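Blinded run. Sample ID left blank on purpose so nobody reads anything into the name before looking at the predicted structure. Input follows.
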Amino acid sequence: MSDLDDVLARSMPPAILYPATALFILVQLYVFWRIRHRVANFVVFAAWFRYMASAYHAITYKPAFLGMSWNALGSVAVFGLGLLLIRHRNLRLKFLVPCYVLIAIVAISGLVNGNYSGIINVTVKFGYFIVVTLGVFEAMERFGPRRFMAMLLWAFVPPLVLQALSVIFGISKGTEAGVSYIGGYNHEAAFSVTLATCFLVACFANGLNRHLRNGLLLICLVGIYLANYRTTIAAIAPLVVAQFTLGLTSRFVPNQRALVGIAMLVLSVIGVIAASWYLRERFLDVVVVVESGGMIKPPEDFTYQEARLMSGRPYLWSQYIYAYLDSGRYLLGFGPESWSGTMPTYAHNTLISYLYEYGALGVIALAYFWASMVVAAWRVRQGSRVKLLAAHLSFILLSMSTMPLWMIEGNILYGIICGFTLHLMRRRPVYAGKLAFREPTEHMRSAELVVPYRRSAGTVQR
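Blinded prediction complete.
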């Protein structure tokens, strides 16, 4: 057995995985046939294929050729397919400029440090994010969020079913935080991000039957709890509060919504406090670290007990930060993927990782990237703006204790959030007796907000 086999989690037994896979393929072929739109099918496929490939991690995580795993080669293939299918003019949208700036910093840092393979790996991950973002945007132009988000939920059938089977048959993974039921996947981080993505999509799938959607949201939350990854449990809280607060207030007439909203906010705070108390043992070391001011200090100053807090994150973060400070490479860092072979594991914090890999310029570019996406969501004046902002906040919180941008699963999550943001920015308000909304068509060419229609001399003009 290879060293790789020793670190991989337990897969689902073939007697369960293979028949389930055959069923998943048949269901997905039927979904593709029903959608009949190449970009929408691509987005569903990009998510579904990743989740299926990760279920076979004992095979797909192993080296293939060119120093890449089968999983990495699959990501390159999906990225290339996305480039072929999306409208190329959308690659010039100003919405994506912050992402291009970040890619440029990655490339420059890699060239300065001679880390050429790292440039390719990171660029493919950002490319995956871009094609998912534009794919979601274009699919929503065609179907609208109500229909497309319901379609996208089919991509999550494999992880949801496999997790249910892992619970039924008692197939779990032992972790420092306890037992994790992750459907035979390799790691609870990527799997819980997958379930968080499903929760996000269900939040915006307004076309679903109310009871079906609420049931799916509950299943996702239970699944995240069973996956037992504390980072995702904490990070999803803003979106959970926004979803259940706004979901109830929207059922009331406008003049009653403010009062109901305040009541629901109070209940949500009480619910968060109750959940915090119930999970207090899991988050006890987090409280200790927060009360100590973050516990960032030279690695040699850590005691044995301190180095184990929060699964060793403060100790790991200190290793990265002090290695950066001692290096003198303040501007561009050590280069993309430079932690591999040098550090015990990836940084589990996107900002700290970017500081180490890309220096101060990388942190500034990342902050610009996130801030521009949040500002874009804030500029949305209709639809689900509060939930959209909560989704961005949840992703940033997730990035503070793991690295979703380093995972393809995280690229899919953020691509859906940003694609939905871009779609809402493009919706054109019109006056037709009262304010209404018209879904954009495929012929719209710019991502800039257009001038609202106004009524003049009995006609509608722009």
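Unblinding after everyone has recorded impressions. The chain has a mean pLDDT of 82.
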